[in-house]
Design goal:
Blueprint: H1 2-30, H2 46-58, H3 70-83, H4 86-90, E1 120-121, E2 124-125, H5 142-151, H6 167-170, H7 175-187
Antiparallel strand pairs: 1-2
Length: 205
């Protein structure tokens, strides 16, 4: 009887361990993808939900959520505005007048020209990332956008790769996070550059 009791207890413990492991696997499968940029998880975990909330809080422009995945938009805003530093290069000037944090301001972005490009870096000029008339960020569909980020493809100069832009770093992001960035860029208003680059500069960033 004692041996049977021990055996039964062992089986119960083993079953509990297996069940716990299966729950862990299920939760992992529902979270955002991780790894070398090719994760495909779809459900937000607790950490990503806080990023979605913060993303909406820090978005410097009104967002059009019609037909958009709200969680992707929020996460995309968090990545663009809190991690990627996209405003620094793709908004000209990057900060609203009197708000430059390097001069004591609060860092409020230049909403009127937000992500519309126009910043010159020698012979290169940052691109306009805002939606075109068809609603595509920078005129790119998602497949094209992925190609730009993953390979630095310069759609305006075939056979060349983008310069200045840190795509070799951004390409390490998961497909899901890049989808969130694309969704966010699709939701911001169209804008025009606030700076006129030198004639010698080409929009190649």
């Amino acid at each position: 009887m004692k041996k049977k009791t021990i055996l039964s207890l062992s089986l119960c413990v083993a079953a509990a361990v297996v069940a716990f492991a299966l729950v862990g696997v299920a939760r992992a499968g529902n979270g955002y993808g991780h790894g070398n940029g090719h994760g495909h998880g779809m459900g937000p975990d607790q950490n990503s939900e806080s990023k979605v909330k913060q993303g909406f809080a820090i978005a410097p422009v009104p967002l059009n959520l019609e037909g958009k995945n709200r969680a992707w938009v929020g996460l995309g805003s968090y990545i663009v505005n809190a991690q990627g530093g996209c405003n620094d290069c793709h908004t000209c000037p990057p900060f609203a007048e009197g708000h430059d944090p390097y001069a004591g301001g609060d860092g409020a972005a230049n909403a009127a020209n937000y992500l519309a490009g126009g910043t010159a870096f020698g012979p290169f000029v940052s691109r306009n990332l805002t939606p075109d008339a068809s609603g595509k960020p920078a005129g790119l569909d998602f497949t094209q956008f992925l190609d730009v980020i993953r390979h630095g493809t310069d759609d305006e100069n075939p056979g060349q790769v983008l310069q200045v832009m840190p795509w070799p770093v951004y390409r390490q992001m998961t497909d899901h996070d890049l989808r969130a960035v694309y969704e966010y860029l699709s939701s911001i208003p169209h804008a025009e550059p606030g700076c006129t680059p030198p004639e010698s500069a080409a929009a190649s960033k």
